[in-house]
Amino acid sequence: MTYQPAVAVLPIGPRVTTLSSAYLQNNGPAVNPGSMAWPVAKKVIYCPVWLAAPTTAVKLLWINGTVASGNVDCGIYDSAAGLPVNRLVNSGSTAQSGTSVVQSVDSTDTFLAPGLYFLALTMDNITGTIFRCTSSAAFLKVPGWCEETTGSFGLPATATPVALASGIWGLFGFSTVTTI
Amino acid sequence: MSYAPAQLIAPRSPIIVIDSLGSLEAIGGELNASNAGMNTAAGNNWPAAANVALFVPFGVAQAITAVKMWVQNGTAVAGNIDMGIFDAAGTMLVHKGSTAQAGISGIQELDITDTLLAPGRYYMGISSDTSGATSKTFQGVLAGAYLGVFTGCYQVAATFPLATVTYAAYASVRVPWFGLAARTLVA
């Protein structure tokens, strides 16, 4: 315990997404986001986000690509030792609806204390697309992205992450406000 | 001096100017990460229909007093603009009122009533009563309107001059380069 002046931090929101991950803001990709199929059916991709102030997630969201098909599950995990552990909230299996639009799901309002969390997304097929930035597995692994492929579709209650194999920087996250 | 436990975060410097496209207080980080570009040679035509107000989220970590708002004009100016600051619920806190767009290729300042902003989230709003090629500003160019939605921007039709609003989904593929300042000298 030390003495120091109170530190001011920016309030969180209105969106917390894979684009707002502080780890990535100074290392933008080379091209604009594009539409791409999910790399492997039932693959879960985890993106770390650091929340410096408390907030409440009220909606989960992602950007559909030019083809909508099958189902998506989007959620938030807490962390331990820099890895995702427990699923805190998720959309559940949600039919992909609309193309080239932000799709959102009203989720259970979930308070998030300051700390490290992981945004997560999975799809049950490789036909439907989402928007993603071009990157590489190495670029994303360094700041802490990871993945796993589940036996059945859906975000697992407990993550079992392995090293990232895909360079897909999918665009997903949550909103702290209800109006999208 | 107050007492606080050590925190693993860097203190932020006092804010002088917050701009819609570049500041981390606004959506600068997200636009940088998504590779949004800007036409800095001439600017772009006004990005929405006449009288549509556009809103960009921003936050302040420490209380500041906003004293000016500004926009970077392009190579054509016409009609009237208005800029203001709104709270998270859409309540207008301050605005300049209808002001002729003036100053080709320069930063146009709008002097607003000095307004204290406590730490929190806000929106900067801008509206024009003129659309098309006669009214240009520098703008961030998005890969799609979905990025405006994804980053938390809003727009509201038939809002000139600015007034308290009910936020609605962003539909433009560009975001004007404008902002607010805590000092009187912007341009």
Task: Itemize the secondary structure elements and their pairings.
The complex is a heterodimer of chains A (180) and B (187).
Chain A: E1 15-17, E2 34-37, E3 43-51, E4 55-63, E5 71-80, E6 83-90, E7 94-95, E8 102-112, E9 115-123, E10 129-133, H1 137-141, E11 146-149, E12 162-163, E13 169-170, E14 172-175
Antiparallel strand pairs in A: 1-14, 2-10, 3-9, 3-11, 4-8, 4-14, 5-6, 5-7, 5-9, 10-13, 11-12
Chain B: E1 17-19, H1 28-33, E2 37-38, E3 44-46, E4 53-60, E5 64-72, E6 80-87, E7 92-95, E8 99-100, E9 107-117, E10 120-128, E11 132-137, E12 139-141, H2 145-150, E13 154-156, E14 168-169, E15 174-176, E16 178-181
Antiparallel strand pairs in B: 1-16, 2-12, 3-11, 4-10, 4-13, 5-9, 5-16, 6-7, 6-8, 6-10, 12-15, 13-14
Largest interface: A-B, 43 and 40 residues
Order of helices and strands of chain B: EHEEEEEEEEEEEHEEEE
**Which outline of chain B best applies?**
globular
Tally of contiguous helical segments of chain A? 1
Q: What would you call the structural class of chain B?
A: mainly beta
Mean pLDDT of chain A: 90
What can be said about the biggest beta sheet of chain A? Answer: 7 strands, antiparallel
**Measured on Cα atoms, how large is the radius of gyration of chain B?**
16 Å
**Gap from first CA to last CA of chain B:** 36 Å
Structure commentary:
The complex is a heterodimer of chains A (180) and B (187). Chain A contains one helix and 14 strands. With 180 residues, chain A is mostly beta strands. In chain A, strands 3, 5, 6, 7, 9, 11 and 12 form a seven-stranded antiparallel sheet that branches. A four-stranded antiparallel sheet of chain A has the order 1-14-4-8, with no helix packed on it. Chain B is globular, with a radius of gyration of 16 Å. The N and C termini of chain B lie far apart (36 Å). The relative contact order of chain B is 0.30. Chain A binds chain B through residues 1-11, 13-15, 17, 19-22, 24-26, 28-34, 52, 61, 63, 100-102, 131, 133, 171, 173, 175, 177, 179-180, and chain B through 1-7, 9, 11-12, 24-25, 29-30, 32-36, 57, 59-62, 88, 119-121, 143-144, 146-147, 149-152, 154, 167-169.
